[in-house]
Write a structure and sequence with these properties.
Elements lengths: L1 H21 L2 H14 L4 H15 L6 H15 L17 H18 L1
Helix pairs in contact: 2-3, 2-4, 3-4
């Protein structure tokens, strides 16, 4: 029993030190979860986002992938999911020779890379 108490005490100390060094990651994670729940994401996107959120919750802030997953979720939350533009883009100003030259450039670059 004393070993279990010691482990619990050390975990609490470690959590306190992490909070002191990195701030409270719990608030950050809860904020992202609230943002995700307030968005109307497509089903597949929500599934992936929740999977990444679970992964983030299991990580410590000092782990290498922590910031990567955190930035991914923040970017996901910042995207305009339910906003659509009514503007149409006109490509009438492009002439056929311009389009051909762009296509030739793309093909030339792809051939050069091979």
């Amino acid at each position: 029993l004393s070993k279990e108490k010691r482990n619990m005490y050390l975990r609490q100390k470690l959590e306190a030190i992490n909070n002191e060094l990195y701030g409270s990651p719990i608030d950050e994670k809860q904020e992202i979860e609230q943002k995700l729940n307030s968005l109307r994401l497509p089903e597949e996107t929500m599934k992936v986002a929740m999977q990444e959120l679970r992964r983030l919750k299991s990580m410590q802030p000092h782990q290498q992938e922590y910031n990567l997953v955190l930035n991914y979720l923040n970017t996901l939350c910042d995207l305009p999911w339910d906003q659509y533009s009514t503007e149409t883009v006109s490509y009438t100003h492009l002439t056929l020779p311009t389009i051909y030259s762009v296509q030739i450039s793309v093909v030339a670059v792809s051939l050069k890379k091979k």
